[in-house]
Amino acid sequence: MIRVLVADDEPMIRAGVRAVLATAPDITVVAEAGDGGQAVDLALRHRPDVAVLDIRMPGLDGIRAAEEIHRALPDTGVIVLTTFGEDDYILRALGGGATGFLIKSGEPEELIAGVRAVADGAAYLSPKVAARVVAHLASGGAGAGAARRRAARERVAGLTVRERDVLALLGAGLTNGQIARRLGVVEGTVKAHVSSVLARLGVDNRAAAAVVAHEAGAVAAPAPDQV
User: Fold this and answer.
1) Dihedral of the CA atoms 38, 44, 55, 24 (nearest 10)?
2) b/e map of 182-213 (b: 16 or more CB within 10 Å)?
3) What number is the average pLDDT over the span 61-67?
4) What are residue 218's phi and psi, to 5 degrees?
5) Same-domain pairing of 81 and 179
6) Which of 149, 154, 162, 212 has a 20 to 30 Å separation from 196 between CA atoms?
7) In this predicted structure, what is the pLDDT of residue 227?
8) Which one, of 38, 109, 115, 124, lies nearest residue 76 by Cα?
9) Burial of 79 (0-12, 13-18, 19+ CB in 10 A)
10) Residue 141: band (very low, low, confident or very high) from pLDDT cuts 50, 70, 90
């Protein structure tokens, strides 16, 4: 059973997230918080598998809460919920330990898929979030955007063929187990490739690697077993 903490300062949003997750037989909400500080306290108490945090909350916001939870509980995955217009926050959260990014107005299935993926150690960027992040990174002008895409392609080109395959699937939000099935290898091999990909790309986590994959246009098409 995947144990989840939900934090949002709006009770109706918390209720909606809880209701969506209740439809998944393998997910249970173990605690709810109305602000970031309370979320950190409850995470330390309940040690959930996944923390779903609103990016904007009074007091301690979702980014700082994600950082504290990741520092104290590195095995707890963190998903950040965002709305349109919060791209700067998303970019900050990438460096703060969050590995899942979802839009509040997204489909319920995305929330469930994201929680499952992050609980399994994968990164999960909803397609809309990934597109916005890449667009935001390129927003410094056409030249800057082209330079970023070119740099991303060069970084990806430095990977082995198998590492590029793994990155493409990682960028599509697949877990290690799903990648292993797609490539016909054992999960331990995938873990080794992922570690190598992160090191070669010079990034700290799977979410950042997924952004590079999207910038380089190297994301694989989703498969039926992804959700």
Assistant:
1) -110
2) beebeeeebeebbeebbebbebebbbbbbbbb
3) 86
4) -115, 35
5) no
6) 149
7) 42
8) 115
9) buried
10) very low
Question: Range of 185's domain?
Answer: 140-226
Please say whether the beta carbons of 77 and 122 come within 8 A: no
User: pLDDT, tens digit, for every residue of 179-223?
Assistant: 899 999 999 999 999 999 999 998 877 777 887 887 888 887 655
Q: Which residue has the tokens 């570690």?
A: 195
Measured CA to CA, the distance from residue 178 to residue 174 in angstroms comes to 6
CB contact burial 67-77 (16+ within 10 A = b; e otherwise): bbbbeebeebb
Helices in 103-220 by DSSP H: which ranges?
Answer: 108-119, 127-137, 142-157, 161-171, 176-183, 187-201, 206-216
Say yes or no: 84 and 194 in one domain: no
Task: Indicate the helix (H) or strand (E) that contains 38.
Answer: helix 36-46
CA–CA separation, 69 and 108 (whole Å):
25
CATH assignment of the domain containing 177: 1.10.10.10
* Closest to 174 (Cα-Cα) out of 133, 115, 225: 225
Q: Give phi and psi for 83, each to the nearest 5.
A: -120, 170
How many residues make up the chain in this entry?
Answer: 227
Which range is least confidently modeled, 2-16, 57-71, 177-191? 57-71
Q: Which of 76, 99, 133 is the last residue of a domain?
A: 133
Residue for token pair 């395959």: 165
Write the CATH number for 98: 3.40.50.2300
